[in-house]
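Contributing: when you submit paired examples, paste them exactly as shown. First protein:
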Amino acid sequence: MNVLDNESATLSIILPGSASEADGTIQGIINASAAPDNDITVSLASSDTNTIQIPPSITISAGQTSSVFTATILNDTRINWDRSILLTAHVANWIDGTAAVLIHDDENTNLTLQLPAQARQSNGTITNGGRVLIQGIVATNLSLSLSSSDTTKLQVPALITIPSGQTSAFFNLILPNNIQTNGTQSVQVTASAMGFATVGASVSIIDSQTPPLPIYLNPPNLTTNNPVFVQLSWRPGVGEGVEQLVNGTFELGDLTGWSTTGNTNAAFLVEDGTIPPASGDIVSAPFSGGYSLLGEQSTVPGFLELSQDIWLPTNVPSVTLSWVDMIRNFNGSFDTNQQFRVEIRNTNNVILAVPFKTEAGDLALAEWTQRSADLTPYKGQAIRVAFVVDASQDFFDLHLDEISIRAANPPLTTYDIYLSTNSLPGAPDLFGSTTNTFCTLSNLNAFQNYYWQIVARRASETPGPIWSFSCLPTLLINDVSLREGNSGTTNATFTVTLAGNNGQIVSVSFSTLDGTANAPADYTTTNGTLTFNPGETSKTFSVRVKGDTNNEPDETFFIVLSNPTNAVLARAQATGIILNDDLKQPILAGIPNAVINELTAFVYTNSATGSSFSDVPLSYSLDAGAPAGAQINSQTGIFTWTPTEAQGPGLYAITVRVSENSSPPRSDAKTFSITVNEVNSAPSLGIISNLTVHAGSLVSFTATAVDGDIPTNHLIFSLGAGAPSGAGIGATNGFFSWLTSEANEGTNSITVLVTDDGSPNLTASRTFTVVVAPRPQINSFALNGAGFCISWTAIPGMTYRVQSKNTIYGAWLDLPGLVTAASPMAQKCDNSGLSLERFYRIQLVP
């Protein structure tokens, strides 16, 4: 028989009020209000087993009222915020015990906002230019709000999302471009999200009128072996324009956008400055941002290539490639098998240019260096930019960062050049200004320290660093050319000049070297040492050139300077040119046949080869039979001809001859043909004068037209649209006739057309105006002694006749004298005496 205990007790749980995820475990106590006679199993439960896990049960021993248990706090990478977890203790028929513990999340809720230190108005949209990071992951998508303190300078999206399970999100930066000169402005971007601390970061926005800092200055700072003829050079600063490259900063943390190739001994790694290279070199931080690229080899030999294909836009003035590299060559020297180079290729891997490669003598273990190259010649093309490392001899670490290809339309930049012997050049030291990126200095003093600075200037200016260099006395050698002669020898005399000597003894060795000329057949080898004592500035030596009568090309040999002491070489090699003075037959280049229209100019420049010497000139001429008007410049060979109307259509053979003024004379001739097409020309219509007439007048004239074509075309006259009613013109004779009326009063515009029957039909036109004034109207009568005067409306310049009669049936009689109107009113006085009645009329004299 089973007996069930119906006695009850109350359970309770004692826990710490709070704990952190990092605590790992906490101790809890289960208490019973009465001690059981037998062992009692207490079931335990957690409201969130992803945060606190506890044993499924514990035992309260007989006669005891409590038992201790351990709760495990799970530490994760999630951002859970602080949360209360409920633990429950249960025994059947007993009253459950519960207790809550507050668990503090140990992932902080601070946001991190990453922005570039600076950007330019001309950058347009900077893809993935900003980034927001959190310190852990969230269970659901996290929405963040972004804002800019000045949207006229920098715009950001209002909302971005960090997906669940991720710790960051990128966003684009948009820089509106404007023409205002604002210099550099700091813009604050703010990021916020519910449950997170708001964060802000700033970026400096540089306007387009502030030029970037000049880079890649030469000569290098603190160098001492420069010639006294120094060319200062620099590259325009970088950062302007719209980015065309993907992930050139590697801030995505991977190689998105890039392709890599290489052998199994080498690899490119995106790294954050914590990866030690296999070469054993020190760890290097990125040039900027959180990531850079490391190319390394596990063993030698190693080959690496990093490339990306880019379409370069057409409608921009300039495209610039820039990058920052740190070259670490543990072989100590560079050659074609131990080299870093940058190649511009087409997408079929045909090399178009090599804008940079390491050379023998370059610094083997360099630091971060900014470089750039002009890609403007490749606008409108798809190119492949490739960074290549050949490490066949020893470890070769290549660090890359800030790779960029920007298409820009920058304002013109002026570079002010300051040069001084003072370590702080100032305004009085302005040497000059240029829009180029180089400047040649001459006649500097040896052993003098010079300080120079480039200031880039638009509406605002950006000063470059102040660099220093000094010079050594400088040796220069000239090239020599001479005729070989027909026999014996001729001396080719070379001059070595010393510039900038300060009183020391200077020496240099010289020797000959074959080119296309070979010793001893063409010249005699020589070598030696030239010594310049203090005060001496010039030395000469000669090379004997052998003459012959062979007709052969010009030939070259070289003079090599070496081993200078107390001086530097401006040129290490000079060229000797042996001119062939054996006359040769001139050769006229072929002339292509041509097809042209009559009355159209044809121009062709002939070319020929002959003697190399200016005193044996070539002369051009036309053989007999050339068409009238054709001519050729005897010195330049430029042929010109404009066929007349009479010369088309036709086929003309023309012979051009080139002659050499030699004895005996030599010449060459080429014949070519020109086909002249007949072209219909528009007829020419004579000028038609504007007219002013009275209503009722007949306007008539004969229009004249000429057709210049041969043979002459037939001409047809007509009137253009809008001609007044009643106006007409003879189709073949051009006779125009129009009887005006009161309905035509005002200005009438009439166009006469003449059309030929050529192919195609061509038309000429003349437009004239006829102003139709009202008929003459008697305006007034005025007594004038024994007669009276009549006034009427008139057209200035027209002539009128006044007639009268004493009875209505009588004959009209002319008053003496015609009247030519000088104004819109005309007048005639009748002094024939008064009568009881008299009639008058006004007539227009044709």
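Second protein:
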Amino acid sequence: MTTLHGNWLIGSQDSVFFLWGEQWQGKELSETKENHPFCLESGALAQFIQKFSPQLDCYSPESIKLSLPSYSPPRKKYFLPLLSGQILEPTAKSLSWQPWQVSGLTFSAGMIIQLWEKLPLAKTEFIGNDLRFWLYLHRWSLDLLARGKFLAGINQGESCWYPLLDSTIDRTRLAKFIQTIPPVCLAYQENSEPQTIILDCLKNIVDARLRQKIDSTVNISPSLMVKPWLQSLSGDHHDIALEAKNLQRLENAYNNWVFPIQESLVNGNNRQLIENQYRVCLSLQPPRLGTAWKLTYYLQALDDPEFLISAKLIWLEGKESYHSYQRVVNNPQEILLKGLGLASRLYEPIRISLEQRHPEECSLDSIEVYQFIRSIAWQLQDQGLGVILPTGLTAGSNEQRLGIKIAASVTPKKGERLSLTSLLNFQLKLVVGEQEISKKDFDKLLEKKSPVVEVGGKWLILQPTDVKAAQAILNNTITPLNLSVEDALRLSSGDNNLIAKLPVVNFQAEGALKELIDNLNNNQGIQLINPPREFRGELRPYQIKGVSWLAFLEKWGLGACLADDMGLGKTPQLIAFLLALKEEDMLVNPVLVVAPTSVVNNWEHELRKFAPTLAVFVHHGEKRLKGQAFAQEVKNKSVVITSYPLIYRDLSTLEAVQWQGLVLDEAQNIKNSTAKQSQAVRKIPAGFRIALTGTPVENRLTELWSILDFLNPNFLGTQAFFQRRFALPIEKYGDQESLHNLRSLVRPFILRRLKTDKTIIEDLPEKQEMNIFCGLSKEQGQLYQQLVEKTLQKIEETQGIQKHGLILTLLMQLKQICNHPGHFLKENSLETSQRSGKLLRLEAMVEEVIAEGDRALIFTQFAEWGKLLQTHLQKKLAEEILFLSGSTKTKDRVEMIERFQNDPQGPKIFILSLKAGGTGLNLTRANHVFHIDRWWNPAVENQATDRAFRIGQKRNVQVHKFICTGTLEERINEMIESKKQLAEQTVDAGENWLTELDTDRLRDLLLLDRSAIIDEEETD
């Protein structure tokens, strides 16, 4: 795996971008070499970037010296550069910066932006943090251009384009870039300042971008001196075709023209923008006893808004530079007067104050204060000036307003359970912050006839609409309100809804409502239930918590999303929850479980394994029941299992049943809210709803909305509202406040535990073995049945060694059919995973492995099947997949193992043939092992599993054994699991024992149970 890095190199003539690559495997090392051992050669780097920008060919090979984080390996005297994502061994010596000679490619600004715009901003493994920093800077440059924040310029006789940073937002963003630049970005220039490198890069890429986009044709009179300058602002030539005398006149005129904004231009001569990161700040001071409001003047540091220097102190010092706390402010008086001059154009009281020789502040009356807060402050901020308002007067979420305090409780009606729709008993009170306001107090505030008033030491603006709403509450003239438990959950999460046209600033729940909200916000307080007596198995402590959480939400009629990591047992927790309902005599109607087609059989097996007392019915297949026949059949069942495709095909049948509950397994299948199956599940009536998923959000927040809207309809509003209120601000603008509000809203309904949680790790065994039951597709079923019938007839007619060979060949071919029809038919590719239940399930599980940042081994006894799998999964997952078989060359074998084990950015999935990879390898980087087809010899399978589960493994290992239901795979697995004599023979003799069976016993073992077939229409 290659990881790309980059540095901006400032040159005496032209600046360039240096791109270099890092690969996981190094060259031979010596103690004296300075060449970076993991550096990708220039030619290989050029080839690597071609897949992103094939037409990009204007670059130059280069080798430069960079100081990079390095470490000394245990018991070694030399240093190694630290790889991206590498975790050091505890015995390695601490990090230090060491010089390394690095080979790479240099690009002009115009060329590198063509590559940058093709690279993803997302956290992709092949993009280093330093290169990602430059990608974000490039994104900011596009934002500046979109907002017109640029200006044509002249610099030493050449034309150029300057970025214009004349607003608070852009100055603050610049300061943030300076603060967050990765140290590796400064690895080329010694003692280089971050701001110098950032501004030089910004200037060059803005200039390059505009020259590419602007037409060179200028419709202007040839007699005007500016025409050559304007013509030179496009294309690659910067020279201005003017004589020296005229060029000097033009440059002088230009400098006079831009003088008012010159400190906001990003150019090499503007030291004020680089060094003096200070601006004028206006602080509004409330009146003290007998005094007026004051607007006091300061200088404020852009990178630290808390750092302020008062105008009074600046005039008192009277020096050309001001020194304080290791900071130096050059020409503070000049910066102050320039900023005040700009502010005076917008606000008359400031202009009047400038008539004084040393202006420090200005006085304001209450009407001027209101005008300043409402219409002037934001204009000053937009001009790049700072504004500080008293607490409560800041516009936005911190603004002090008249608000409502609600005290609420809930009492269920006789014979009804509490639910989201249960109505509240509540009282409304008028408040400012924490202080309640009576009618008498409010009337006194209005008597002051001031738009800005003080309440309990805090200031607020009395807005006319708020005053009218407050009077309606105090006079009991508001429209009657109905508030429900659903409203209470929103209000308690901090979602500031308006009630009676005023914001709810304080919500106090009482009694059972308080218990509900407290437990939802902190599920650790939920009372644990006893494990159901009829549960066949052991529930771990975290699983008992999960079952108790499901039971608590069901009690309140709330939908629940159990989103534990793969392998933590979501299915057993759900089954235990159903048994808990049964023990409480609460399971009076059937529960419908909807699962992907590939796991319908697995659900049936898991229910029979953990809860044999639950009556289970599987609804699928060509001859499935419909209408009244179906309703009659499921009436006395505890659980009904069906698949997502049948939800909309058989909707009329399914929605006619009164379901106790509706459970969605792999609930990400309804992430597209407009899909038929997503709309169909919402129409099915159910007492409770549960979603099981390891990935509640895969790509977009609207996927989360779709699942939560299924669980608790309308709780997050319509999809359009959710997109406007949360998805757009969070995904496009990174709005942290919206993200915090969304988390508060959804946290009560999602329980997600990770394998890496300390409390979970303590509960887990070192190795978990799980059987994964998969159905056959219709095509697999036909091939299987035909082969068995045809071969059994031949077996009956043969004896001895020929019979022995026929049986072994039959077993091998049946395994191939269970894998995929394409494997048995010797096809060159796997056209679709829909032809195989095993492949469908493997795809879903491997996707989850990759999403969780884990690594996996996939064992097969067929080399040709491993190759087919590699090609198919690489295409399906867009991930590199390794494959090792007996024909793999020793050199390639060693390299693959090294990459999988040691490359931090290496492939996550490693397919191995059982014979080639089953012994002698150390692959402890994997924490998942898949046995996609079975050897039927536990000793051999355990040897393969031990490639991951051995000394050096630091994580719990999950072993997944795939079994096709209704086939010989399921029957032989049952023998092995039950440890009968036949299973012991299997351990000793592999598959040879099967050749000793008579034809009738062999037929019983091999014949297909057709109920296990997944019909074709379900896999559309």
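If you have annotations for the second protein, write them as plain sentences, like these:
The two ends are 36 Å apart (CA to CA).
Residues 276-388 form one domain.
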